[in-house]
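Workshop exercise sheet. Pairs work together: one partner reads the sequence aloud, the other fills in the structure field after running the prediction. Swap roles for the next sheet.
Pair: D.N. / O.F.
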Amino acid sequence: MINLSINGTVHAVDVDPGMPLLWALRDHLGLTGTKFGCGAALCGACTVHLDGEPVRSCQLQVQDAEGREVVTIEGVSGKIAKTVQSVWQKLDVVQCGFCQSGQIMSAIGLLTQIQKPTDEDIEKAMDGNVCRCATYVRIRAAVHQAAKEIA
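Structure field:
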């Protein structure tokens, strides 16, 4: 049994310690907002926060998350998270939506660290978050707008 702190609640999960956190979240805890995209940490669809930092849950073993705080798209809260989600809707960033939970988690991570990011900061923080619909221009605009509204 492994105890995982997910979105502020401790969950005891009976899984292989080497299982990717992604599958524990989706299949054992029913938190399906975190998506499976590639399984190789290349697309960003599975991004969650581990102790406040964006990480790819498809490559993080459950045992490595024990004793640490995991936040998924279902559990984000606070001014930055709410602003990012609101701006995403206002600017109609989403097209198909599959990658957007990972995009939003990365954007929240960026704006938590850098309140007024440059285009270069955004590109660096969002690198590896793939959007098959190519909404990158809208994503960058949303991050800039969220930064303005947070300030």
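Discussion prompt: The domain at 2-75 is CATH 3.10.20.30 (Ubiquitin-like (UB roll)). What would you look at next?
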